[in-house]
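Lab notebook, bench 4. We co-purified these components, and the gel suggests they stay together. Before we commit to crystallization screens, I want a quick structural picture of the whole thing.
Request: model the full complex, all chains together.
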Amino acid sequence: MSPTAGKYILTISCPDTTGLVATVSGFLRDHACFIDESSQYGDPATQRFFMRAVFTPSAASPSAEEIGKRFAAVARPLDMTWDIVPADRRPRVLIAVSKIGHCLHDLLHRWQAGQMPIDVVGVFSNHEDMRSIVEWHRLPFHYLPITAATKETQEAAWLNLVDKTGADLVVLARYMQVLSPKTAKLLSGRCINIHHSFLPSFMGAKPYQQAYARGVKIIGATAHFVTDGLDEGPIIEQAVERVDHTHSVADMVAVGRDLENVVLSRAVRYYAERRVLQNGQKTVVFR
Amino acid sequence: MSPTAGKYILTISCPDTTGLVATVSGFLRDHACFIDESSQYGDPATQRFFMRAVFTPSAASPSAEEIGKRFAAVARPLDMTWDIVPADRRPRVLIAVSKIGHCLHDLLHRWQAGQMPIDVVGVFSNHEDMRSIVEWHRLPFHYLPITAATKETQEAAWLNLVDKTGADLVVLARYMQVLSPKTAKLLSGRCINIHHSFLPSFMGAKPYQQAYARGVKIIGATAHFVTDGLDEGPIIEQAVERVDHTHSVADMVAVGRDLENVVLSRAVRYYAERRVLQNGQKTVVFR
Amino acid sequence: MSPTAGKYILTISCPDTTGLVATVSGFLRDHACFIDESSQYGDPATQRFFMRAVFTPSAASPSAEEIGKRFAAVARPLDMTWDIVPADRRPRVLIAVSKIGHCLHDLLHRWQAGQMPIDVVGVFSNHEDMRSIVEWHRLPFHYLPITAATKETQEAAWLNLVDKTGADLVVLARYMQVLSPKTAKLLSGRCINIHHSFLPSFMGAKPYQQAYARGVKIIGATAHFVTDGLDEGPIIEQAVERVDHTHSVADMVAVGRDLENVVLSRAVRYYAERRVLQNGQKTVVFR
Amino acid sequence: MSPTAGKYILTISCPDTTGLVATVSGFLRDHACFIDESSQYGDPATQRFFMRAVFTPSAASPSAEEIGKRFAAVARPLDMTWDIVPADRRPRVLIAVSKIGHCLHDLLHRWQAGQMPIDVVGVFSNHEDMRSIVEWHRLPFHYLPITAATKETQEAAWLNLVDKTGADLVVLARYMQVLSPKTAKLLSGRCINIHHSFLPSFMGAKPYQQAYARGVKIIGATAHFVTDGLDEGPIIEQAVERVDHTHSVADMVAVGRDLENVVLSRAVRYYAERRVLQNGQKTVVFR
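Here is the predicted assembly.
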């Protein structure tokens, strides 16, 4: 049996005030729910409160639907943005890729090996290179070439895919196209990109070349929510690795691949486990 | 004003059951206390629950003494081990050192620079080497030489110091003497040692020589509570650094110094901020 | 064109003495070879000298065969163990796996994506689980079940494979069988294992369970040459990651997967690029 | 006896060409010198060659002075920038600090404990705060206040100190004044600064506040040579540490202190051991 079966995840974001933890944990106790895990954070700068709790209803608890209905009554006066979902509900994920396959390959392997709590609904790409590995995984591969002239149509095509597949999340796994502001906005909080630098260093194109030229001693990778500012969205996860003067750009690219895989897969897993809450231009990540 | 002024820290360890967070947070809300921070953890293996909450009473709250009295009534039936202390109460710390001074120096500098929330009440040593720096810090230096024959007397002498100074914590900052089982037991949970290896690798004497001989590619340092098993107490913090074939034992010692400083100072700070709770032979550290 | 085309790698291990670098680099200059990279190390403890040089012959150089013949005359009186191979010669690698596939999958992806300078000649396993992914990569999969009674026969079967495929290296990519001392000895310096702990901590079975039980704050993985002492062979590479009290054994296993992939693939790449030289029970790794 | 006694360090930077290692190592062998360590690097981008060798003359070697004279004849036609110095010659170091003392304190402790191969010739500051610890170390403390109006005079005053003390290196150990372009240029390659961010992220003032505002998950510190571009000089060393949403600016400052100490002390040690060679806007660091 899955360790998440029968559990629920509650996430909350609201204005901070005295008694919030008591209200929420009291509600769960009063409905005979056991709290397996609970994390909360009050941001002193924004005066906002964030909470994630994993709980298990008991035989004495009402149905999940009823719990949700009653929690809504608690949440409204506190101006909560909240959600209760089964802990084993996997988000539906659509992956985008261009020609460089390591992040895609890594995500698909983790997913296929049962290590990533997502349902991959398909992959789209502006190139054909990744068709074979995608189809080996018995997933639909959507070839959607793009030019400056067809950008709008191409985005419309895969936004249509998002709708048709019911995708909760779009993962840009080295998809080398900048989204239009309109599309970025539409997918706000639902689109994760991997950038191959330690942001905010080396935004934009060819970050490893930039890192090489600057002579840094450490390189990194960053997973972030996509916003309409290029590489400026809320950061979810970062990792770094040492390099030195002997590393060519190609060596940095090779070191970076492992970083990108690890960082992107962590970010997607945090999202899938509902550990990531947006806090303005930043994130709260309950790891 | 200190960021901890007016705040209190509540720590709890007890058998896990439904409703604990609700009980505690409900108690705080009912006494008009705002929760600044709260962390909790239920260990599925031992079925024990651990909690640390930082809270701020308001004008409507009773006195801290009264809050404590009332919480005792809540805690007793739940079999809680608990404590409520002012967040700005600094533990009194007695430091032990032998001839190698970097950890002592580092701790004293952090303390003197206001970066370490402890009150250092003195330093004892089986050697005279560190007298000068200790006295520059205007701290009492107790020279307590030791031989196999005088071990019992020497330990009695500094245990007497612990009593007289009201020390809450003894920090072995590269004190190169193994405590007698009796003394280790007496100081259970109140004595932190820095071991210069990544435990459980290389227990006992000369860990850097052992690491060199084994040809490891990474070395480490470990801060742990002292128990009567040599280097086997609950681990509080560890850190590591890369080495390679060019590192002599002396090079490893040099790399290790920085690790030891960082690891020991973190462990002492976690203790001082009441972030460390013992869980059998392990620790829960709410970082 | 490959960055290694037309280059050669010279590796040397010999007793240390004055003038070795001069002898070797003078030899290369006298044969009109440009040194692209050169690393050397004299171990003060063992008085042995190690060197790795990448060089490019010019139009004025004799043939590689002739260079080798002449170098042999230089090397003999200095008691050198040495080798000169084309830098683009890929070692032939036979991979062993049991049921857990992440290391295999990772190696095969790197190989197939052109990121790993090896020729994979096949995979053998005592289970059928990995057949599909191996065959998708169009590689022969050899199912060689094993029991206590058949251990000798089974080892003979895959040692025969080593011979037939001309494998230079056997990689145990989570192959959960201890090799017999005879086989370990036969493959001395040609067989790399990934152990899922930060050796020498947690040798033997179930290292993550051991790490969990001990309450360490950092876990690791180690790639090493196989010898007849279990998990005691010369260490090639290690890496670590932080964990804390909230990590279950399953969580540690998940964190460890990424470590194992990175560590094993680095070790194999170092081997393939002839960066690893054995120095008794230790290694010199010219990274 | 010091491990460096009787040894010399040769450093070279010159246009790359075939036979350089042979020429240099042949020269040393022909003068009966044993090479203890040797590192070299040819930068394919700039076509420059860099080398650092530690060697020990024997009874059969000429004097160091004579070796130098003869090497000059070898070096001239190859257009080498080079130096031969006794390995135990410690650079003379003048330290600058403002009000924040951890880097100063750390450097002085390492120096006083014999862990840092430098001779500290004094400390200057635009504030009085650090006088006491400097004088406890029996070092001259020079109080040189500065205003916009007196910047030129103040810089002249400490440049005069550099001359009078024969300082080889000026270390800006959290000296919170930007040097004038003229002074930066004058001290080119002889002045190391610690910047409290992972450059090129967060150049300029208040980097921890910038890091906090951006919501990065990792912070860092950078030691670099000072040039007239603010925080743009060649990077010598960097290090990083994880943070998360719970870290206030003050928490980041606290984490950063340890990073700054480690990074700055490494950079100064690399410089003192002549491991750092400038390569245009980058560095070669033979660690």
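DSSP finds eight helices and 13 strands in chain A. Worth comparing against the SEC data before the next meeting. Helices of chain A lie at 20-30, 64-75, 102-112, 131-136, 151-165, 181-186, 207-214, 249-272.
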